[in-house]
From TrEMBL:
This is Phage integrase family protein. GO terms for biological process: DNA integration; DNA recombination. Residues 1-26 are annotated as: Disordered. Residues 204-471 form the Tyr recombinase domain. Residues 1-25 have a biased composition (Polar residues). One of its GO terms (molecular function) is DNA binding. NCBIfam families: recomb_GmtY (NF040693). Gene3D superfamilies: Intergrase catalytic core. Keywords: DNA recombination. It comes from the Bacteria. InterPro entries: DNA_brk_join_enz (IPR011010), Integrase-like_cat_sf (IPR013762), Integrase_catalytic (IPR002104). It comes from Tahibacter aquaticus.
Length: 494
């Protein structure tokens, strides 16, 4: 914030009709955030963080969409989080003002994340006057995540008088257009896989549903994890350390998180973090193997420049190619899944039920502390722990063999038609969502599908389920007919 902007801010008198106002706690160039009394229907003494914005020729006004957003979130949004969200929306407002004055032809949603990471001191004109210092990629990711939640909420309510915000309209219009076009709203330029996916979509055939695609039987899961994956010679009393934890972690990612078996093999150790909403649960980020952001330690050497992508990181740090392009036995496929954060090219694993996130975090920590060998020249999380491949990335073929051995160890037969191959766990995840009557939109996001039609193969009822449902409804209908045909007490027909 420039000295002139600070002086201007200090001389502004901000009117308020909502009760006493505290001293602004977070000033910007064209905004400030303060903790104010904003009564609600259920709490007449409620205080929340309020954002007030203005332009170069206008007076400060309360930004009502944010008030309504906090009403929507309710007690889920604690004061500290309110303040951070309000600050990020304020920053976006500052940037839109400066961006418009600068006459820049660069799209706003491309320029804004770049300015967050690289700072604005190297820019020119009004953008330089913002005087933002560079932020670490981790910090920038967290801030953009907060902002994206608000923007998605506003976008869902486009056209509502409550959410009218003239300075946001161009951004939301461009954002929705880019989503419809499957074009990245990203702080980088080229996406060869986007063009490839659009080509595939144009030639895509109608979805054929295999109604008898079988999910892994939930009744056998505990035995599979705790008996099937027990290490040779290990004793049950050793608890989780008696298990081959890398195989257990992969299986949990599929069964509790809905991943395809190949996707786990692209994970770096840095991709596992703590869920911001549950400190006992894991947040797993699944980055695109080529275009996903590299870990934060690789970004520090690139402050103020374009983010380091995984393809470049693997090449320059380890002399490797992404595993989806590896022609050796370490190859792991990649399907063009829906990205939750296109700017950084990653999706988040959605645990269902949520307890799987806690189980995963506990076992992940045990794996790092007790079973994971030192990685030999690579950043991948899953590492072979025996034989000549010790220290090398664990392979999909090795996991498939381990899973087959575990299946046979608990007395089951390995067959796709029985749901006992690794992909049966993803089917189990989809069926679990369907059984819980989760909406199709949520299923699409949870399973990382680009098309809403893709989930049908996972959530469609089986032939047996259809037959059982028809039988149940038939009995109910026959019961009603029987009741109608019974004679009344006076001997006549009802």
């Amino acid at each position: 914030m420039s000295n002139a902007a600070k002086s201007l801010f200090n001389t502004i008198s901000v009117p308020s009709t909502d009760g006493p106002q505290t001293t602004p706690v977070q000033p910007g160039r064209f905004y400030h955030v303060s903790h104010e009394l904003v009564p609600s229907l259920t709490d007449p003494r409620r205080h929340i963080y309020v954002l007030r914005t203005w332009g170069s020729d206008s007076k400060p006004v309360r930004f009502e969409p944010l008030v309504q957003y906090f009403d929507h979130l309710g007690k889920r949004c604690e004061p500290k989080r309110q303040r951070r969200i309000a600050g990020m929306v304020g920053r976006l407002h500052d940037f839109t003002q400066a961006h418009a004055l600068s006459g820049s032809s660069e799209p706003l949603w491309v320029a804004f994340p770049e300015a967050l990471v690289g700072g604005t001191e190297h820019l020119t004109g009004p953008l330089k006057d913002l005087m933002w210092p560079p932020a670490s990629p981790v910090s920038a990711r967290a801030r953009l995540g907060l902002l994206n939640g608000f923007l998605e909420w506003v976008s869902d309510r486009a056209g509502s008088p409550v959410t009218s915000a003239p300075w946001l309209d161009p951004l939301l219009t461009a954002r929705r257009a880019s989503q419809r076009a499957r074009h990245a709203t990203l702080p980088y330029r080229a996406h060869t896989w986007d063009a490839h996916e659009r080509g595939r979509a144009s030639a895509r055939q109608p979805v054929v549903i295999d109604r008898d695609a079988v999910a892994f039987d939930e009744r056998h899961l505990e035995e599979l994890l705790f008996v099937g994956f027990r290490r040779t010679g290990a004793l049950p009393e050793h608890g989780a350390l008696s298990l081959d934890l890398k195989d257990v972690l992969i299986t949990i990612l599929q069964h509790g998180g809905g991943l395809r078996s190949c996707e786990a093999f692209h994970l770096f150790e840095d991709d596992i973090g703590i869920d911001p909403n549950d400190p006992l649960s894991a947040e797993v980020r699944l980055y695109h193997p080529e275009d996903g952001w590299a870990p934060s330690h690789a970004q520090l050497k690139r402050a103020g420049r374009d983010a380091v992508r995984r393809e470049e990181y693997l090449r320059e740090w380890y002399g490797r190619v992404p595993r989806n392009r590896d022609a050796s036995g370490q190859h792991a496929g990649w399907k063009h899944l829906r990205l939750d954060r296109p700017g950084e090219a990653y999706s988040v694993v959605r645990w269902f039920p949520s307890e799987w996130g806690r189980v995963f975090l506990h076992l992940f920590n045990l794996y790092l502390a007790h079973q994971r060998p030192t990685a030999a020249g690579h950043p991948f999380l899953l590492v072979s722990d025996h034989g000549p491949e010790r220290g090398q990335p664990y392979t999909l073929q090795s996991y498939r063999q381990a899973h087959a051995i575990a299946i046979r160890r608990i007395g089951l037969k390995v067959a796709k038609s029985l749901g006992t191959t690794p992909h049966g766990h993803r089917h189990a995840y989809g069926r679990r969502l369907a059984a819980a009557e989760v909406s199709t939109g949520v299923v699409q996001v949870a399973m990382h599908h680009r098309s809403p039609l893709s989930q049908l193969v996972y959530t469609a009822p089986t032939t047996r389920e259809i037959a059982d449902e028809i039988e149940r409804l038939s009995r109910r209908l026959l019961g009603r007919f029987g009741a109608l045909s019974e004679p009344s007490e006076d001997g006549g027909d009802e």
